[in-house]
Every structure is written in structure tokens, then in C-alpha cells.
Amino acid sequence: MTNQDILLHKTLKDYFGYEQFRPLQKEIITSILNGEDNLVIMPTGGGKSICYQLPAILMEGLTLVISPLIALMKDQVDALNANGIPAAFVNSSQTDIENSSIIERVKSKEIKLLYLAPESLAFFEQLSQVCEISLIAVDEAHCISSWGHDFRPAYTQLSFLKKRLPNTPLVALTATADKATREDIANQLDISNAKRNISSFNRANLSLEVRPAQDRVTQIIDFVKSRPNESGIVYCLSRKQTEQLADRLKKSGFKAAAYHAGLPSDIRSKIQENFIHDTTPIICATIAFGMGIDKSNVRWIIHYNLPKNIEGYYQEIGRAGRDGLDSETILFHSYADVIQLRKFAEGSGNEEVQLAKLERMLQYAEATSCRRNILLSYFGETATEKCGNCDVCNHPPTFFDGTVIAQKALSGIYRLQEKEPLNVVVDFLRGSQNAAILDKNYHLLKTYGVAKDISWKDLQQYMVQLTNQGFCEIAFHENNALKLNELSKEVLFNGMKVSLTRPVEFIKADEKTPQK
Ligand code: ADP
Ligand code: ZN
């Protein structure tokens, strides 16, 4: 061990009480201490905070932490102070007097870490005049990107930080960033040369399962009945659903509660507390539940509805099994949800991105290859081994020789010059006569209508399987256009065989059928 290593371990032990660093923590801390910019992608619970809190202790000046979660700032600051690390926060909820007393404490070098909401950045100028800023940490950095799932306009102002303090190391941290978002973060914060630290998103102890949503309430009751005393969360899309489901569970004799942002805050705190202490082990919640809750023995997560995107889904299932023990996750998939989510996305003001993310979520839900590998590849990890802990691995679908279908599909993408998204390619291959086809004279091209014999839904599913198996790709930044790749060429020109499986019937799960 070098002297620096010894110092880092001692600081970890003295201030945080831990014996060992988690994966990547030491590398990140060392790099920050060397003055380098860093981009940190680590799943929730991975231990991101220590990556900037520990250097803050060792560095000469102040560490500025930009965080959007005003509600959690106080807890974080309290926890730091309890560990003997002087910290404070500034946000709009405080008075001018409180804020100027903080300036005084910064000036006298009493404070090591200062948490700042992006809305309070005006404070930055005052700070930079009275102290040396040694490190800037941007937490929840995905909020800067409109490619992310939680875009906050106030975050876009942060680009000035690197310009103002070009020699101060900046570390951007997030739990949720696909490849496109990740690069967007680095560009916008002006740290494109930052060291990339991407820890594995694989949570092998979580089983993954997707079920058709038919009779989901009965399915949920059966599920919890066979798991007495286990604690879990059911995520629902609407407040009403959380209440209805909690009622049904209570009527069936389970200790359950509904939780959503419409409840008074004292009731919400009470519910959280009862959950943490296992008094109410089952919570039916909207996504408002779970942020900042550190409960290690959540044994299962159920999604009553299809989530809006993979980032949110991954974060939510990640709340199970923090203790490392086996935990279960189930997602109920129905087309009624898809239609509703599409409507939400269309009214969101960020329509294109949201729809693209929903499309990826749908592909996950309809996957016919290992679900974990799909999740991992979404977060930029390559995994080739099957996981053995998802429903697809455990009950592999039966495959047939789909080479001819694949050849037709990939030729379609080729004829449309890799410019069109999946639904247009399907329309084209099926010889549809709608405006999207006729306006561009696509009906005059070769391969128009070659897959007439396959239903729209089935063909769409086959194309999803092809993308999930890597035979073609979706260009996220180009309107979701389907693109060919090396593997496509193998199929088209070198006779590579492709296996497909018959689509699972999710439509039966609803009374409603999808609109095309
Ligand atoms: P994140 O911000 O990535 O969600 P946190 O920084 O809140 O995660 O850390 C999650 C939990 O793991 C916290 O309880 C933290 O104290 C703990 N933790 C972090 N680093 C270590 C470590 N090296 N050893 C043991 N526990 C750790
Ligand atoms: Zn698997």
C-alpha cells in the first residue's frame, strides 16, 4: 500500500466507519485528488456519496455539492455532521440571515462541504470570493440532459461552472444514464475528457419477470399470500390505483398502505416509518415512494403498470434486495398502459425522447432473450452469458427458423435507407397504403409488401426480437430509425441463420386492443 492508500483507508474508517472501499470508489477518489474531472455512473445504493465526501475531507478548500433533492439535503448534511464532517446546505427554503451566516462559516473555513440547489447558484459568486473551491460535485447529473428521464431546466445553467473554475476538478454523478445521456452530461458540463467510471449495473440477486396483466389483482394477492412477513412495494401509475389496491389487500387480510404525493406530509412520513419498521410491510405507491428510503430487506417489487422508461424501472426494482439476498421483481404488462403512457408522453413537451424511451421499455417487456442482458446493454454493458435468473432464461421460448423473416425485415430497413422507425418498416413490409408510405413513394420500392402474410402485431414483435438479438439497431438520436449493422450483413449476404419465437399474447390481458 502506498502512503496515499493508507490515508484513504484511514479516512474511510475514521469518518465513515467502513473497512473497505466498494468497487470503483478508490479509483474515483484518487483521480479526484489528482485534480481530474470524473463522470460516475453507479446504481442507486452503490455508494456514490463517499466518492466526493471523502476527497472533500482531504482537500484544502470547500467542496460544493449541487443537488436537486432539496428534501434530502438536510438528511445528508445531518448525517455528515454526525460523522464529524462539517457540512451545510443552501436552498430557497432558508432565510437570508441563515444564508449569510453560512457565508461567514465558509469564510472562516469551518465548513468542508456545502450543498447547493441549482436554483441557488447566485450564491456561487459570493462563495468564490470568500473561499477556495477545491471540488465541485454535481449529483443526479442526468437532470442536465433532456435525453435523461428527469430533466430539470435549472441544471442547464451548470455549464458555467467549468468555465469559471477550469482548474477545479468536477465530478458528475448519476445512477441512471444510458449511453446517449451519459455523453450529453459530459458535453454540457464541459468535461468531455472526464474519466468515465461506470460500475456494473448487474444486480444478480434480483429475479426479473414479466407477466401479462390479466387479473393482476388476484395475481398480486396470490403472490403476497405465499410470502408471509415479506416486505415489498407495488408501484402503480395513478393515485387511485394505489388506494384501490391497498384496500383490496387490506380486505384480504394483509397489512398494506397506499402512498402518493397527494397525501399530507405527516401521513406520508408515518407510512414510511411503518414500512421501514415492518409494521406495514406492503406499500402500494406511485413513484414518489422510495427516494431516500434506506431499507435493506425489501424482498420484492411489483410494477402494477408498465413503467415510462427503463431508467425509472431499474431504479425502482433496485430498491429490493439491498442486503444482497435473493429478491423478486414482477412487471405486469398490458397494452392499455402502453396507450396511456403514449398519451402522457405526447403531452410532455419532450415528446420524441419520452416516446423513444417508452419504446425501449416495451421491447424489454416483450423480450424473448435474457432480460438482464437487455437491461445491461441499455446501460452500456455487454453481457453475453444468459443470467439464469429471469423468466426468459428459466422458461426459454421455443424458437423456429426465422431466417427468411429476418432477411425480409432487414432488406426492408435497407430499402428505406435506414431512415424509418419500426412502425413504418412494418407498414412497408406489409404493403400498407397509409400516408407515411404513399407520400414518400415507398410503395414503388422493392420488398414493399413482402411480409403481407404476417400480422402487424407479429411482424412488429419479430422486429423487436431482431433488435433485442442484435441483428439491427435503433438510432435513438434519429427518430428511432432502424439501422443495419455487421450482424445484419451476415444475415443478408452470408447466410447467417436467425431464430425467432412466436410472440407472447399480451393483448389478451386487456379488454382494450391497441390502436394502430
Ligand atoms: P448512492 O448515492 O450511490 O445511492 P450512497 O452513497 O447513499 O449510495 O450509499 C449507499 C449506502 O452504502 C450508504 O448507506 C453508505 O453509507 C453505504 N456505503 C457506501 N460506501 C460504502 C463502503 N465502502 N462500505 C460499506 N458501505 C458503504
Ligand atoms: Zn436471463
Task: From the structure above, extract its key features.
single chain; 516 residues; alpha/beta; seven-stranded parallel β-sheet; six-stranded parallel β-sheet; binds adenosine-5'-diphosphate; binds zinc ion; isomerase; hydrolase activity; zinc; metal-binding; DNA helicase RecQ
Helix-and-strand structural type? alpha/beta
Bound compounds, each kind once, are: adenosine-5'-diphosphate, zinc ion
β-strand amount: 5-15%
Shape: globular
- Largest sheet strand order: 3-4-2-5-6-1-7
Which percent range fits the helix content? 40-55%
Catalogue the unreliable spans.
507-516
From the N-terminal CA to the C-terminal CA, the straight-line distance is: 63 Å
What does this structure look like?
By secondary structure, the chain is of the alpha/beta class. It contains 21 helices and 17 strands. Helix 2 (25-33) packs parallel to helix 3 (49-58), helix 13 (335-346) packs antiparallel against helix 14 (351-365) and helix 17 (403-415) packs across helix 18 (422-429). The radius of gyration is 25 Å and the shape is globular. The N and C termini lie far apart (63 Å). The model is unreliable at 507-516 (pLDDT under 50). Bound molecules: adenosine-5'-diphosphate (ADP) and zinc ion (ZN). Residues 18, 20-22, 25, 42, 44-50, 294 line the site of adenosine-5'-diphosphate. Adenosine-5'-diphosphate is lined by residues 18, 20-22, 25, 42, 44-50, 294. It comes from Wenyingzhuangia gilva. Keywords: ATP-binding, DNA damage, DNA recombination, DNA repair, DNA-binding, Helicase, Hydrolase, Isomerase, Metal-binding, Nucleotide-binding, Zinc. Its EC number is 5.6.2.4. Residues 29-195 form the Helicase ATP-binding domain. Its cofactor is Zn(2+); Mg(2+).
